[in-house]
Amino acid sequence: MLKKFFRYAGISIAVLMVLGFAWLEYSTNKNEAVPGELAIAAMTSNEFVDIQDRDWLVMKPKIGKVTTGLIIYPGANCNIKGYAPLMREIAAKGYLVVGMPMPYNFAFLAPNSAAKAPKSFPEIKNWFLAGHSLGGAMASTFAASNEGMLSGLIMWDSYPAISLADSTLPITSIFRATLEGEQPENFKDFVNFYPTDATWVPVPGGIHMYFGSFIGGSYKELWKPKISIQQQHRIVIDATLNAIKSAISSE
């Protein structure tokens, strides 16, 4: 009797796993936000940045010694290449930028991916982690357990999955906002998850999917954009660079 129970239980678990992976495959194919025009244009190396698209999307400055790196976790259903316009500009300022593709485009399936980067780039002394949406939530869980590896955490239109109120890491939240600079209502519930010295950077009139360049996807925006995608990219890039510079200068 017990043998039968374990056999049927094993079969049930196997069926559930197959169904789960089938759903992930379906969701990825149906809901993926693919790289938009600006992203495709930014996927080409130029005189300032070398781009390698293998297991990871890596953008490295061609000039100068590089000692600081930024890892990026994508949002749910977001192809990592959609962040290429921001990644290339940040790399052009002298930073190694590593975009981490996620299994089925869901960062919760590989939240510890950032741990692999230091082994592949031992020359990098300072590592920062940024995450968009679900990627930011998963970046927060990694940061909570790996403060010693990171020099800072940057949230792109996201909020922590767990409280970081006691974290000693420099944390910057860059978020879409109303024209008056107000956060989305659901973001306000997580303000206490940040340390009191966190930096807040609103993107007035910005939208969620303008944190990259995407076509398609299933995300439903709260409002129509009040600024162009290029204007939003400029704000996000500058705020990210300021977060990195500020954290390094305070060490």
Level of helix content? Answer: 25-40%
Which class of secondary structure composition applies to the elements? alpha/beta
Mean pLDDT: 91
β-strand amount: 15-25%
Order of strands across the main sheet: 2-3-5-4-6-7-8-9
What would you call the shape?
A: globular
Number of strand elements: 10
Could you state the order of secondary-structure elements as H and E?
HEHEEEHEHEHEEHEEH
Radius of gyration: 19 Å
Major sheet, described briefly?
A: 8 strands, mixed
By oligomeric state, this entry counts as single chain
The unreliable regions are: 2-23
Q: Please give the count of helices.
A: 7
Q: How many angstroms separate the termini?
A: 64 Å
Could you explain the architecture of this structure?
- This protein is α/β, with parallel strands linked by helices and 251 residues long.
- The chain is 34% helix and 21% strand.
- It contains seven helices and ten strands.
- It has helices at 2-31, 37-41, 84-92, 117-120, 134-145, 185-188, 229-249; strands at 33-35, 49-53, 57-61, 68-73, 96-99, 126-132, 150-156, 171-177, 199-204, 214-216.
- The chain has an eight-stranded mixed β-sheet. Strands 1-10 form a two-stranded antiparallel sheet.
- β6 (126-132), α5 (134-145) and β7 (150-156) form a beta-alpha-beta unit.
- The protein is globular, with a radius of gyration of 19 Å.
- Mean pLDDT is 91; it is low at 2-23.
Keywords, separated by commas or semicolons:
alpha/beta; 7 helices; 10 strands; 34% helix; disordered N terminus
